[in-house]
Amino acid sequence: MDYGTPAVVSVPELFGSELLTWVVVGLLLYWAGIIALRKLDLLPGFVGAQGPILTFHTKRGRDFLDWLSGPKRFWRAWANIGIGIAVVVMATMFVFLLLAAIAALTTPQPTGGVQQPRNVLVIPGVNDFLPLSATPGIVVGLLVGLVVHEGGHGLLCRVEDIDINSMGIAMLAIIPFGAFVEPDQESSKDASRGGQTRMFAAGVTNNFAVTIIAFALLFGPIAGAIAVAPGAAVGGVAPGSPAEDAGIEPNDRITAIDGEPVDDNDDLLASLDPNSDEVTVELDGERTTTVDRSLLVTAAIDGGPVDLSTGDQIVAVDGTDVGTEQAFIDAVGDDHTASLTVQPADDDEQTDTEVPIGAAVEVADGEPLDDATGQAGTVVIITAIGDERVHDYAALESQLADAEPGDELSIVSYADGDRDEAEVTLGEHPQQPGSAFLGIRGAPGTSGLELNDLGVQLYPAEEYLAVLGGGGESSYGAVTDTFLGKIGLALLLPLIGVVGILPFNFAGFTGGVQNFYEVQGSLAALGDGTVFILANLLFWTGWINVQLGFFNCIPAFPLDGGHILRTSTEAVVSRLPIEANRGMVRIVTTSVGLTMLISFLAMLFAQGWLAS
After folding, report:
1. pTM (predicted TM-score)
2. For residue 49, what is the enclosing H or E element?
3. Domain residue ranges in the chain
4. pLDDT at 66 over 50
5. Distance CA 250, CA 511 (A)
């Protein structure tokens, strides 16, 4: 059950596609310029060109690597640890991609946001979860990641007595696209198999080490110096909503309602008079505005049971004018259906529609509700459990939370306008032993609609700060109490809004969200701007480095994982009681590489293609 695009937005939807067009045009012009310079022989000798990519070569730094490689036993031990980590990650990546491909082929669904091909590109503004404002942090993180990765290869080359012809960095326009170390081919062949493996594993080892260091600094002194600023954080404003009409904008903080201070997001709901159609809102503690409340549909299920769309306004229920969510509930009362007077977003003429008011759910096949009603795969609206009226999905969850497996409940539901009442015996939740299970997949809100009488979507500022080690409480509980748990959640933050876990992505303290935070303690002397810059650099350095580490561990050429797979396969084959040859090794590496490539492409494209 999928919601349509919420009406509460802060960035135009077409921005990413328009930017991608300009990026492509710019790259083509840049490429043409490179070709012209190369034909005119104007490129310096240390600059190479491979298509639109420029490579800058240097022999400087080899003396430094020779000096740094002095404690060879230490660096070999360090790289051996990296080999173990790399092998585990390689196996995990292989299994993950294989299972993802199988799921995409066997259970096709419309392609999700994360699976869009553009989201594979780490290009801010093009990638859905990497905004332009995050560019400086991403570029610095990428530079650090590339330098330590290739520096690790170069260092282990010298530890294993492999000569280095040159080192350098590859640039795509102004974007650092990669770095490289060119080992001497002859001395590389002379190195032991173990030495080659350590050399290939050194890069990802350094990336993972930088990740740990960056996040340790972020979770410790930096995030500890940041606090959530007073007020409710406005992450988005619905077009045509009362908030937009009153001049409220994304990244504002609502600091008071009708003169009463608002401490945080939760306090906003408590501060709003449920029956008042007009409120005075203070923004950022500086200016006030008057909001005339009206009931707006901010999200709706695609093809849902109620024929309303995002942007529609509910103006009356059974002839009674309503301007707030509470007035809506009061007007519906105990009736299971209501006649809604609706002002469509794209039409000046109001319409009346009779709809059931309750919790919209999809009935799962073979589960308790399906056993009682035979409505598997159908979206129904549950309006009552026993004698208790259900007005929305939150009320349904609350009632089911008080039930136990084996309880028998009388459930009233509507499907396609037809009323059904059934006795349902609850099962046991498959993931939560001891909890009751009805066998449904629900949509938040009322009858598959999310209603908002102010027109703002709140940004979970405290949630994100808690994940990063700052103050406040997190809904993830014990996960945020461990260092590795924090890292795992931090890696999800840039795409957490794309997958729908929380309403907004977190791209660092940038793009205006700095207004939701303030710096305190000893670091306050540095100024808010400096601390936020440090936090952004650490966040993206940690995030980019772990991505580089995982990506390079993919067991396919020309990535490090492919080379480690080859040397590891050679080591295993050489110990088998058969006559080993390079063909056997090639079969293994080619098979694994092709499987990874096919799985990756299937994960990206198969679901959307099959579902269509």
Report:
1. 0.76
2. strand 47-50
3. 1-42, 66-221+538-611, 223-293+456-522, 296-452
4. yes
5. 10
